[in-house]
Amino acid sequence: MKKAWYSRKWVIILMNALAWAVFLKLPVLLQPIIAHLHQFHKSRPKSNNHWEIGFDLVMIGFFYLNAFVFVPRLLYKSNIWRFMVLHAVILFVLMFLFSPFLIFPYITINGLSTAYKLIQDRMQAESLVKEKENENLKTELTLLRSQVSPHFMFNVLNGMVALARKHSDLLEPSLIKLSSLMRYMLYEADEDKVPLDRELEYLQSFIDLQQQRFGNNVRVQADLDASGDPHQIEPMLLIPFVENAFKHGTGIIKNPEIIIRLYCTPEKLHFTVRNRYNADSAEVKDKTPGIGLVNVRRRLNLLYGSRHRLDIREKEGWYEVELELYFL
After folding, report:
1. Which residue has the higher pLDDT, 6 or 231?
2. Spatial CB neighbours of 85, under 8 Å, sequence gap ≥ 6
């Protein structure tokens, strides 16, 4: 996973350098600390600048000593009293060596140091959690997609068997279309996103195969209008709805009909699938239900979240699916 900009090494180094420049050299921002330091400086010979440099280096050293040694080894392990006693001893020694005015700068330095370490570790922990979530998401999506393919192939091959039994002349063109579908599944469906027109070609090929299988026994209306649309989509996201329509919209149904519509605007994709259904026939078929619709719901939630709307309803002998995907 790509690192966040604030976790890059050069950014951390730059932020530390800027923080020290502000702390040590801008009295407007840190007047109370600088006031104490001025009193400390007055107690020493003015010509001795080495003391000031040495003091700055000691403060910087104790900032990082506290952040990377005392906080992880004492504070994180609930040794709070040891943590406080250790700092009290160090402060007493520094006050003895340098000046009694060190108490406020030292407490400020180590307070900032502790906050720095806590914030840094919290950011790293959140980054790790997000990375794990992303990896789990990728794994889950891969698994869901791999489950769609066998389910789809099972339905298509059943159609091929029916054509073979009839010695139909449509078997050969059907096999050609099937090889095209398999090529798409093998070489393009592994991508995170595919062009919308390629996904619709795949969908249209599937519809053509089903029309060849059922012939005039099922009326199919398909209008997939997205020519030239520049958007991309998760591969094999729409096919489960069409599969479901052919599964439940055929068989012992009076005047079976399937209507598929898709169009795009600059803001969204609108997709609807409607099929007549027989409630009694649907109950029999659902004894061995496919995993398509369960998967597609999960995939939509994982990939699009609030950027999608899915409505599935049964109304007056029609089973209707309406899906909207909102483009970024």
Report:
1. 231
2. none
Number of Cβ within a 10 Å radius of residue 66: 24
Structure tokens at 278: 């027989």
**CB-based contacts of 319: which residues, under 8 Å, 6+ apart?**
245, 248, 249, 274, 275, 276, 277, 312, 313
Cα Rg, the chain, nearest whole Å? 34
Are 268 and 327 spatial neighbours (Cβ–Cβ below 8 Å)? yes
Q: Which residues, including other chains, have CB under 8 Å from residue 108's CB and lie 6 or more apart? A: 33
Beta bridge partners of 58: none
Q: How far is CA 199 from CA 146, 181, 224, in A?
A: 17, 10, 11
28: tokens are 């407007």
What is the mean predicted confidence (pLDDT) over 73-93?
Answer: 86
User: How far apart are alpha carbons 207 and 246 in whole angstroms?
Assistant: 9
**Taking residues 72-90, what's their average pLDDT?**
86
Alpha helices in 166-215 (DSSP H): 171-187, 196-214
Q: 215-250, pLDDT tens digit by residue? A: 788 899 999 987 777 888 888 888 889 988 888 888
- Domains in the chain, start-ordered, CATH in brackets? 5-129 (no CATH), 168-326 (3.30.565.10)
Single-letter residue type at 308: H
